[in-house]
Sequence to fold (431 residues):
Amino acid sequence: MKPVKVGVCGLGTVGSGTVNVLRRNADILSSRTGRNIQVAQIAARRPNPSCDTADIPVTPDIFEVANNPEIDILVELIGGYDVAKKLVLTAIKNGKHVVTANKALIAEHGNEIFSAAREKNVVVAYEAGVAGGIPAIKALREGLVGNRINWLAGIINGTGNFILTEMKDKGSPFADVLKQAQDLGYAEADPTFDVEGIDAAHKLVILAANAFGTPLAFDKTYTEGISKVTPQDLQYAQELGYRIKHLGIARRTEQGVELRVHPTLIPESHLLASVDGVMNSVLIDGDAVGQTLYYGAGAGSEPTASAVVADIADIARLIDTPQVAVPPVAPLKDGREVPVLSITDVHAACYLRMSAKDRPGVLMRVTEILGQNGINIDALLQKEGQESGGAVDIVLLTHDIRESLLSAALKEIEALDDIIGSVAHIRVEHL
Fold:
């Protein structure tokens, strides 16, 4: 059969890795797909010394690739929103299949993109957009297709995981470890997407859409970063038998779907607690299989290229098959609307840390307020003050409680004269 011709738009870290893997493993891919896969054109503003493109036509115009009638699959690796969206929609309009690693594009514009793809009967594949080289999307759509997915949880941003790991191991404050992450190239000059949870939220909504068959709902996802986590929180959590991880959590409930990204205490004996540094991991709970765990590199040139090439290979196997396109996000079979729950309706146990004046009766007043709001205490730490009359840290773990009730109680506690500043609040999950 004729070769499958691929056009790669973007020759940065992932683009160069993709070209290198396609060329290096061309024989393996040919034997596994039954087709030769050929990089027929590249769009790049400048050469990349880590990638040999001497025998491949290169253009600075990405839309030349989208409009090239010889190209079967367009690989979008330029990132961003507006231009990338226009590029992908142009390729779809021209009947081309699309592979992308752009999680922001899919999370925020995927519903529109998938609708256009269905109309043209082409595939939009995006495995590389979630957790780099970990095949989490394929696990949900293929390996676990016979399961009703109950929930999933993941460490899906390596930068945030690196920062929390270093803070725990070295006792360093957030700002110092963030600077270290930037020096090592793990964090951008503007780290907002990573440390405030936006990147993880993009990935979570893609995972949830595939797990539950719901539309992408980035605008309804609760997102909280790690910038307020302190070395003291990490230390106290460890004393209580927990680790703090920045998790994305999606859960199906009778009331709707939870979509939330936030720092989370998990038992230190749990497998996710041992995922350190820049590594990623996704835990999925299905009604038939139970829990399955996926672990690996969440970023990097060739780990991410591995996922891009896997999507290219899947399309290559199907490319001349009638009715090839499968809806990239499957709709609900019964057509029911499934609401995304507000964070105020979520039930979770909680870690609370407050700074209090070292006076008699403070702890009693705090526990009274919690009791009056129906909040039971599971564990308690009270640290000694540095000097007579100084401030002390009070640390509590609560039982499961509705978020709105906890918020009301925290307002009352923070209004006490003996409580200094705000109460730190981190949710607890026993996955």
About this structure: The first helix runs from residue 13 to 24. The domain at 136-297 is CATH 3.30.360.10 (Dihydrodipicolinate Reductase; domain 2).
